[in-house]
Amino acid sequence: MELRSIVEPLDLAGLFPQSQPLEVELGCGDASFLADYARRHPDRNFIGIERLLGRLRKLDRKGRRAGLTNLRGVRIESSYFLQYLLPPGLASALHIYFPDPWPKKRHRKNRLINESFPRLALAALVPGGEVYLRTDDEDYFAQMTGVFGASKEFQRIETPPELAELLTDFEREFRARGISTLRAAYRTPA
User: Fold this and answer.
1) Does residue 156 register a pLDDT over 70?
2) Which domains does the chain have, with CATH numbers?
3) Short-list 153, 78, 96, 149, CA closest to 122
4) Rounded mean pLDDT of 71-75?
5) pLDDT band at 140 (very low <50, low <70, confident <90, very high)
6) What whole-number distance in Å separates Cα of residue 153 and Cα of residue 172?
């Protein structure tokens, strides 16, 4: 299904055949994580957000091959999607794995997880909704945990083992090179 508008919230009833809890991956890469996770959880709907068309095509191919009716992709910037397209209070979880670290100091303003991100996440999530973060970049991880730690609306929780064992394409690549994954997870009040 194609988006009818990029200025009006999504009609999730028209996007998925069944009404069920929604999880969103912001920056889904080659979709290896999201397609596997959606396959394991047919009782949930999933949207992968990606700016690069080639990666979104991979998500589509993987979902079609696996016959997943609970998986969709949207080609757009993640923060724009959260702010304008995702209807408020609908996502049960946001997954943000290995976002671009923008390592140069002058470029850090481009990072997805910044001081305003917890507000966007809170608006997107259902009460008790969760945010799962992964990165290999220590500086970015410090920023992620700092902005969520400063937010009174989020409480740090443990990443469930079942979720932690599902690897992204970047994570497999980094592990093969001996680079460890830094993880954090947060929950809103129920």
Assistant:
1) yes
2) 19-187 (3.40.50.150)
3) 153
4) 94
5) very high
6) 32
- 């608006």: which residue's tokens? 123
Closest CA to 24 of 13, 38, 36, 14: 38
Of 83, 80, 84, 75, nearest to 57 (Cα)? 75
Asked about 136 being catalytic, the answer comes back as no
Residue written as tokens 């998500």? Answer: 59
Which phi and psi angles does 48 have, rounded to 5°? -100, 125
Tokens representing 122 are 């809170």
Q: Is the pLDDT of residue 45 over 90?
A: yes
Give dist(CA 156, CA 177) in Å, integer: 29
Closest-CA residue to 82 (of 58, 59, 112, 54): 112
Set 36, 60, 100, 169: catalytic member: 100
Question: How does pLDDT run across 14-40, given as a tens digit for each residue?
Answer: 889 999 999 999 999 889 999 999 999
Q: How many CA atoms lie within 13 A of 75 on its CB side?
A: 11
Q: Encoding tokens for residue 127? A: 């009460």
